[in-house]
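Example for reference:
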Amino acid sequence: MGAEANGSSASLNFLIYGRTGWIGGILGKLCESQRIPYTYGSGRLEDRRSLIFDLDSVKPSHVFNAAGVTGRPNVDWCESHKVETIRTNVVGTLTLADVCRERGLVLINYATGCIFEYDSDHPLGSGLGFKEEDTPNFTGSYYSKTKAMVEELLKNYENVCTLRVRMPISSDLSNPRNFITKIARYEKVVDIPNSMTILDELLPISIEMAKRNLTGIWNFTNPGVVSHNEVLALYREFIDPSFTWKNFTLEEQAKVIVAARSNNELDATKLKTEFPELLSIKESLVKFVFEPNKKA
C-alpha cells in the first residue's frame, strides 16, 4: 500500500496491475513520491472473479494496467506460446476493461506502438508519423498481432485510455528491459530512426492523464525519432568513452530473430498539445537518462 494521501490527492486511490513488471514497479514509486494511495492488484487478468474481488476490496478511483506478456528474453517467446499470449494480452486486458466499465472507472492501459511499420504513406525519414486513428499495418510478430487485436476491441470501451508505448527507456541503465541496455549488449544493431518512450518523463504524465480522466488512444512517445546509432553515440559520450558497436542490415537481423521487429514514427501531436512541456526524444534522452548517469 502506498503513502497516505495529502490534500491534493485526497480523492485518488490507484489500483495497479503489473507489480513485478518494469512499468508497474515505477508506478508504485511515483505514487509514493506523490503521496497517492495505491494497491497492487492480486487477481489474474483473465480471472474475472479475482478482478471483481480486487475492485470491491480496494475501491479505487482509477485502475492502471501495466501487466501483460512480452516474452522473455524478448517477443520471440510469444511465437511459440500463442495461447498464453492471447490469455493475458487479449482476454485479460478485455476482462479488466469490462469490469472497470461496469463500475464507471477509467482504465489507464499501457499498450504498444509496435503495431505499425514505415510504409509508402509514412516513409522512413519523412517526419510523417502514424496518428492515433490510423489502422495498424505491422503483423510481423505474434505479440504485435495480439496488441493490435485488443486495441481495436478496446476502442468500444469509452472508459479506457490506451497509451502506445514504444522501445521504452529509463534512467535505470542496469535494467535488462531498458532499450539502451538491450542494444548496448547486442553484438550488432540495426540503425533505424524510431519513436521511443522515455519513462522518466512520460510515466508521471500518465498519472496526470488519470487525474484528468483522459480516455481514447494516445501515441505515448516523445516527439520525433532517434536512431540506434544516435542513442549509442550518446551512450559513448556520457557513459563509456571506449564503447564501440557494429551495425547490420534488416536482412542480416532477420536471420537471428524469430519474429520481425517493428520500426516506425508515431505522431505525438495529440500528447504534446495536451502536455506542451513534453520534450523531444533527443532532449528527453539527455535530460532524463544520460545527464543523470553521466560519468565524470
Residues 1-8 have pLDDT under 50 and may be disordered.
